[in-house]
Amino acid sequence: MSIVLPTAALQTTQRKLAILADAAKYDASCSSSGTAKRNSVGGKGIGSTEGSGICHSYAPDGRCISLLKILLTNFCTYDCLYCVNRVSSNVQRARFTAEEVVKLTLDFYRRNCIEGLFLSSGIIQSPDYTMEQVVEVARCLREDHDFRGYIHLKTIPDASPELLARAGRYADRLSINIELPTQEGLEALAPEKDGPAIRRAMARLRIHIDDAKGAAQDQRRTSIIALPQSRKAQRTAAPRFAPGGQSTQMIVGADVTNDRTILQASASLYSAYRMRRVYYSAFSPIPDASPGLPLKQPPLMREHRLYQADWLIRFYGFSHDEIVPSAPDDTSSTTGGMLALDMDPKLAWALANRAQFPVCVNTAARDMLLRVPGLGVKAVVRILQARRVRQVRLDDLLRLHVPIKKVMPFVLLPDHHPGSTLEAANLAQLVKPAPLQGLLF
Ligand code: SF4
Fold first, then answer.
1. For residue 338, what are the CA distances in angstroms to 237, 252, 253, 348?
2. Is 64 helix (H, G, I), strand (E, B) or coil?
3. For the segment 292-348, what is each residue's pLDDT rounded down to a tens digit?
4. Cα–Cα distance for residue pair 144/140, rounded to 1 Å
5. 192 CA to centre of ligand 1 in angstroms
6. Is 123 a pocket residue for ligand 1 (Cβ < 6 Å)?
7. Which of 138, 287, 305, 422 is the most exposed place for a label (fewest CB within 10 A)?
8. Which residue is closest in CA terms to ligand 1's atom 4?
9. Phi and psi, residue 371, nearest 5°
10. Distance of CA 33 from the midpoint of ligand 1 (Å)
11. Residue 252's closest CA among 284, 208, 289, 276?
12. Burial, 424: exposed, middle or buried (Cβ in 10 Å; 0-12, 13-18, 19+)?
C-alpha cells in the first residue's frame, strides 16, 4: 500500500526533496558494489538487493541502478569551504524528519522508482545528535518495515563508536568521507574536521566489518558439519555489520595536492582500513565560494585518470609510486606528480619502462601480462587458460577483442615480433587513442 499524503504536506515534502536531493548530488561515493545478498524469499520483507546493490550509478556489470540519494538536512554547523551546505553558504535549507525519509523511501520503493537509499546529512546540534537521526531512519526501515532494499549510510566520524556500531547493523555499506588527502588540506579548507578522528572511525569500522566476516565464516564452517535441522537457526545467528564494507571520497582539485599524493593516500586507505572503494570527486565551483578556492573545476579527465590509476593499484598489482614516480624518476608523462591527461596511466608506465617489454605472451607471468597496455584482467585470464593447451598466436588476441594497435608493440608471439617499434621516438603517438574532442578536458 503506498503512502498517501495530504496535498499541503505533499508539496512541503516535494520542496524539501528538491532541496535535499540537490544538496546530495556532490557526494560521489554511492556505488553499491559488493553488498551481501539479502533474501526476501520466505519473509514479508520489502525488496531485495539481488546481490549487486543499488545506486544512482553503474554496477560492476554495467547496469544502471537507482537509489534515493538525499540528505537528512542541508543545515550544517561546520564551515568546510568547498561545500555548498557549509554554515556560511547562502543556500535554501530544509530538513526531513527520520519518519519522512522512511516514508519517502518506502513510497519510492513500492513504486519501483528506487532500489534503496543513500542517506547523508549536514551536522546539526552535534555529531551524535545527527548520527542518531541517520541511524533511526535505517533502524525504522529494517525493524519496523522489514525493508530489505539497499541502505548506504554516510557516517559522521566524530559520532560515538556506539552509534557507528548501530549504523553498521542496519546498513549494507557505510562511508566516511576523508574529503582531502592531506592534513594540511583539511586544516586549510575544513578546519572543523579532524583527520586523525576520521581515520580512527575508519579503523573502528574495519574492526567491526572484519569481526562480522570472521563470525560469518565460522558459522558457515560450523553449519557444514551441523545437522540439517539446526542449520537454519545457525544462519540467523550470525552478526551482521555493513556487508558491503566501507568506502570514502576525496575531493580532487580543491587544493594544490598532486595526483601522486592523492594515490598515496588512497593506497594507505585501502591497506589500512580495507576500503571497498575510494571515490574521486572533481571539485565543483560553488556559489559564494571562498576566495581560497579555485575558480575553475579541474579537468574531468583528471578524475577519470585517477580512477584508472586506482584500478591499477587494486587489480593490476601496481604500487602508487610506480604509477606516479617520485621526483628523481619523474618522466615527461607524469610531470610534477600529475598523471598524464592524454593517455591512460598503464600506457604511460609502459612507455616510461620500455626495457621491460616486449613480453612473451606464452611464457610471461600473470603479473607481467597485466602490465601490457591494452590487456585487461579478463583477457589475461583467457590467455592463461588458452596457453595451457597450445601456443597463443596473433589470431587469438584478435578473437579476444583487445585493442590490438595498443598491444602489439609490447608483446612477443610466435607469429609477431615488435622489432624496433619499442624504440621509436613517436611510439606514444602510434599507440595513443584518438583525442576525445575535448569532452573530458
Ligand atoms: S560537514 Fe562540511 S562537508 Fe559535511 S555538510 Fe557540513 S560543511 Fe558540508
1. 49, 12, 12, 12
2. strand
3. 788 888 999 999 999 999 999 999 999 999 999 876 554 444 568 999 999 999 999
4. 5
5. 9
6. yes
7. 287
8. 122
9. -90, -5
10. 25
11. 284
12. middle
The response to whether residue 78 sits with its C-beta less than 6 Å from ligand 1 reads yes
Query: Which of the listed residues 20, 82, 86 should we mutate to test ligand 1's pocket, taking the one with most ligand atoms within 8 A of CB?
Result: 86
Residues 131-148: what's their mean pLDDT?
97
- Measured CA to CA, the distance from residue 268 to residue 123 in angstroms comes to 27
Count of C-beta atoms within a 10 Å radius of residue 303:
19
- The neighbour count for residue 238, using CB atoms within 10 Å, is 15
CATH code at 12-249: 3.20.20
Residue appearing with cell numbers 608471439: 413
**Contacts (Cβ under 8 Å, ≥6 apart) of 197:** 157, 158
CA-proximal residue: ligand 1, atom 1 (nearest): 78
- For the chain, which residues make up each domain, given as ranges? 12-249, 342-431
Residue at 138: amino acid letter = A
What would you report as the CA-atom Rg of the chain, rounded to the nearest whole angstrom? 24
Q: What are the distances in angstroms from CA 123 to CA 17, 134, 154, 169, 408?
A: 18, 11, 12, 22, 54
pLDDT at 45 > cutoff 60: no
Give me 213's grid cell: 566476516
Q: DSSP 3-state assignment of 151?
A: strand
Ligand 1 closest atom vs CA 79: 7
Q: Are 382 and 375 in contact (CB under 8 A)?
A: no
DSSP state of 62: S
User: Contact at 8 Å (CB) between 155 and 137?
Assistant: no
Cα–Cα distance between 56 and 117 in angstroms, integer? 10
Closest residue CA from atom 5 of ligand 1: 122
